[in-house]
């Protein structure tokens, strides 16, 4: 590995074309500078300078080293500032995960916008996945924080912060018999009809939440089709295959051939959102995200 002090000395000599002038620029004596250059040439086993009666001239090999040295020195000079910026949270990256249904809620883009305004030079990495994979990503420190529809298991030692409760609503094909039903629709009124649901493997938290609400109302939904994503279930509803229970925010994304109605039951039908993270992570960016969530 080449000593950075030798590179600084070499750059000065090349730019001054004179060892004596370079020594003055470096605030050192000429003999030690001459020895530094000679040591560098010995280390690389090549001549970097041609000695002239009145100065030096850089060789082709020296020109190549000079360009590389400028890059290395510029990078080395920037390191302290970047390290300080990262320690202050002014640079770096934050990794955020979320399930598909959470990603459709307006709170997430609003949160990211506010974070970006506070830390414009921090990169935001987003990952959409199922809840189990996202929990693993926190345990493995791949993500700093994830947003799910239920809290993390207490046995894992993770912190679950309740962010909000989103109402669940009914999504009906526009030719469905319940379209003319008075609004709101009682959950038990959905019992006779076919259901389309977001596949449990992809949206376990939301799927289980919906089924629990139905069970509490006294019936088990007749699920005729499961969709790989919450948004793709809307295509099936629009096609008349069945109705569904969906988070309220979904109606902002699709209303063609679908009618949305409010839902009521003895127990409120809601889909909560939780922020899951490791409490012991001392991360400035994570702390700011949590501060924004708690406003």
TrEMBL record:
Pfam families: HTH_1, LysR_substrate
Alphabetized GO MF terms: DNA binding; DNA-binding transcription factor activity
GO cellular component, as recorded: protein-DNA complex
Keywords per UniProt: DNA-binding, Transcription, Transcription regulation
PROSITE patterns assigned: HTH_LYSR
Residue ranges of every copy of the HTH lysR-type domain listed in the record: 2-59
Signal peptide location: none
The keyword Nucleotide-binding is annotated on this UniProt entry: no
Family annotation (InterPro entries): LysR_HTH_N, LysR_subst-bd, WH-like_DNA-bd_sf, WH_DNA-bd_sf
Family membership: Belongs to the LysR transcriptional regulatory family.
Protein name (Swiss-Prot/TrEMBL): LysR family transcriptional regulator
Source organism (scientific name): Acinetobacter wuhouensis
Lineage, top ranks: Bacteria, Pseudomonadati, Pseudomonadota, Gammaproteobacteria, Moraxellales
């Amino acid at each position: 590995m080449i000593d950075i002090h030798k590179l600084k000395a070499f750059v000065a000599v090349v730019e001054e074309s004179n060892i004596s002038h370079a020594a003055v620029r470096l605030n050192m004596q000429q003999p030690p500078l001459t020895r530094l250059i000679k040591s560098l040439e010995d280390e690389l086993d090549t001549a970097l300078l041609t000695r002239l009666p009145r100065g030096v001239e850089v060789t082709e090999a020296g020109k190549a080293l000079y360009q590389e040295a400028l890059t290395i020195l510029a990078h080395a000079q920037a390191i302290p500032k970047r390290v300080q910026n990262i320690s202050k949270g002014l640079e770096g990256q934050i990794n955020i995960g979320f399930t598909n249904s959470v990603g459709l809620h307006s709170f997430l883009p609003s949160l990211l916008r506010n974070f970006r305004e506070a830390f414009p030079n921090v990169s935001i990495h987003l990952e959409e996945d199922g809840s189990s994979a996202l929990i693993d990503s926190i345990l493995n420190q791949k993500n700093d924080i994830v947003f799910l529809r239920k809290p993390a298991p207490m046995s894992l030692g993770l912190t679950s912060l309740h962010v909000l409760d989103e109402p669940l609503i009914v999504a009906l094909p526009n030719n469905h018999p319940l379209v003319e039903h008075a609004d709101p629709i009682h959950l038990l009124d959905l019992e006779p009809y076919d259901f389309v649901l977001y596949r449990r493997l992809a949206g376990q938290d939301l799927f289980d939440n919906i089924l629990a609400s139905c069970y509490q109302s006294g019936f088990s939904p007749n699920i005729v089709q499961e969709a790989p994503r919450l948004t793709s279930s809307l295509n099936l509803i629009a096609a008349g295959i069945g109705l569904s229970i969906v988070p309220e925010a979904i109606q902002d994304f699709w209303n063609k051939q679908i009618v949305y109605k409010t839902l009521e039951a003895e127990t409120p039908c809601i889909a909560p959102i939780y922020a899951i993270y490791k409490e012991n992570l001392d991360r400035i960016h994570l702390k700011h995200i949590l501060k924004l969530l708690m406003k």
